[in-house]
Amino acid sequence: MTETRSTQPESTAYDVVVLGAGPVGENVADRTRAAGLATAVVESELVGGECSYWACMPSKALLRPVIARADARRLPGLSGAVQGPLDADAVLARRNRFTSDWKDGGQVQWLEGTGADLYRGHGRITGPRTVAVTGADGGRRVLTARHAVAVCTGSRARLPDLPGLAEVKPWTSREATAAQSVPGRLVVVGGGVVAAEMASAWQALGARVTVLVRGGSLLNRMEPFAGEMVAEALTEAGADLRTGTSAKSVSRENGVVRVVTDHGDRIEADEILFATGRAPRTDDIGLETIGLEPGSWLSVDDTLRVTDHDWLYGVGDVNHRALLTHQGKYQARVAGAAIVARAAGTSVRAEEWGAHAATADHAAVPQVVFTDPEAAAVGLSLAEAEQAGYRVRAVDVDLSSVSGAGLYGDGYKGRARMVVDLEDEILRGLTLVGPGVGELIHSATIAVTAQVPIGRLWHAVPSYPTISEVWLRLLEAYRDV
Known about the structure:
The chain is built from 16 helices and 21 strands. The chain is of the alpha/beta class.
């Protein structure tokens, strides 16, 4: 669609206007178009969004060779063939292919195939049900929505308030996943998923990595043993991991980054990555025109409708419920169905587990951290369950006791914990750490989401000899307590 200059902005009416063409916006558009609603999608960057070009896909493309080599090294008969360094150029080239070299033609073709109209440019809400789009050429279009505007603009990296940081040109998650060469020395500031994954990837690709973690451990939103095991593996791989440490000041002189920590330590590096949280991309989308705070997270109900705005939806990262692509797409399916139902004047099932309620975002959010070992979790940790007031018991199993784990690789190290609600005898959460456990988490997600009784789980027989036999070991441990 070509935009032209005019003194009066051209106006076009739609049923639904979607701000953001990442996976979340694409899915909202797909659902509303499938129901016959006229839908426009506005995107200021690449169609496909953060996940496709600077997050999920490129990061996992970088990490897959790291994990595959680690798995191979655990197998006699194969370990000797993979002792050399990774071919960094080949890894980066493969990563580039997964991002389509940061070109979005394929994604555009898919989106337009749904029947949605794509507008390239910056979209700003200018009032109820109205969005103005400014194109790269300065041309302006006004889009009106008969039924809904869906804000699906995602989140961006949040940088700390350090003097002179902008002049240092630090990496964020975008630069860390898109870099075209391996830095000799890399400082990673942060202890969450991005920090753990990118430290693992660049250490394996040849960088000397130093990780500064303000808290006492990595991955502090998971069970404590998850961060401990990932930290141990990172240290064994050669990374310098410093907990209880923050960057007090940073500077760059003659290309060299100099970091001073709050303990007075001085570190030199070629690049520095700040993985210190996310902020919503809502600062310049016109929220002030409808009484909302620019740059704020959007408060939504379980149909993803923004509080006190019956035409506005906040879907994906912008509502801060679960900053994960798969959960954003889940929300998009729910929001799309709710928009369609309201447009048709039919009933909206917003009760718990209803067709138009994003209930799983409260009870059963799964996540996989693609380090070596992998860490995977769904639902509540023990501490979270206790804080929520449930009477629970933690059941722990050493994964090395599972036959399938030993076959997976010699010296297999791993651990599993299920959190059992003693009142209802259902699972409130499950955490797994170990090679290959990411492929197990969906079975746990089903058990937690469906609230499968422990007595029924006994009849879900795991295949032998696979790592999934951990389910049997966990149930036995619960019975024997």
